[in-house]
Write a structure and sequence with these properties.
Helix content: 10-25%
Number of strands: 11
Structural class: alpha/beta
Number of domains: 1
CATH topology: TIM Barrel
Shape: globular
Largest sheet: 9 strands, mixed
Radius of gyration: 17 Å
Order of helices and strands: EEEEHEHEEEHEHEHEH
Distance between the termini: 26 Å
CATH superfamily: Aldolase class I
CATH class: Alpha Beta
């Protein structure tokens, strides 16, 4: 079984002088992880508000403005995750790495949850993570630290040129990082045959699908 050891970020950073007791939360829900290595597993999703990456094909643009989403106590979020049997909690966005997640991830670990994050990597991570999904975007360069910590690299393929972009990042990640190509949902009919052929010719890559959309679940 592939399960990365918990990776801790920011604990020795002298800038981290206070705990963050609330986060702007757009939504939270219990469902199945739809993408990447953990697809099909039960997971509680916490979607933070706020993102300055600006992907034009983003399917949650309503998450971009953090001020539109309520500041939610971390304690309340942890209690909500504890009401469900699944061990995995996925912190996503938006761009969740905009925030200090040390207190959140430590609190989740205390109640026995596995902490996963989905990030574009543009900010240095803070917190303790059992699984890091790194999904770089062309619109803003990643922070250099993400390459060492990522458990999976997931590149959204919106155009054939994105395959070259994927390879550029694959060269920088750690040796144990899993590599995924995922068709952008609105372009999937056009891009899927291209991705299939590319994966057959470059077998270090795997295909990730947004299975939750096929299943019509959150």
């Amino acid at each position: 079984m592939i399960h990365g050891y918990t990776r801790t970020f920011g604990s020795m950073d002298p800038r981290q002088t206070s705990l963050v007791h609330t986060l702007p939360i757009m939504e939270h829900f219990y469902t199945l992880q739809g993408e990447g290595f953990h697809a099909g597993k039960a997971a509680y999703f916490i979607r933070t508000g706020g993102c300055d990456v600006g992907c034009h094909w983003c399917d949650v643009k309503e998450s971009w403005d953090a001020d539109k989403h309520p500041q939610t106590p971390i304690e309340d979020l942890v209690k909500l995750t504890s009401e469900h049997k699944g061990d995995i909690v996925v912190i996503t966005g938006g761009e969740p790495a905009m925030y200090d997640l040390k207190e959140t991830t430590q609190a989740l670990h205390k109640v026995g949850k596995q902490t996963h994050i989905e990030t574009s990597g543009v900010y240095e991570l803070t917190g303790e993570f059992d699984w890091i999904t790194f999904s770089p975007k062309k619109f803003k360069a990643p922070h250099a630290s993400i390459y060492k910590g990522a458990h999976e690299l997931k590149v959204v393929i919106n155009h054939p040129s994105d395959l070259e972009f994927a390879e550029e990042h694959a060269e920088k990640v750690n040796d144990s990082c899993l590599l995924y190509l995922q068709p952008e949902w609105s372009k999937r009919v056009r891009m899927m045959p291209i991705i299939i052929e590319y994966t057959k010719n470059h077998p270090q890559w795997r295909i990730s699908l947004q299975t939750h959309k096929y299943l019509n679940i959150p």
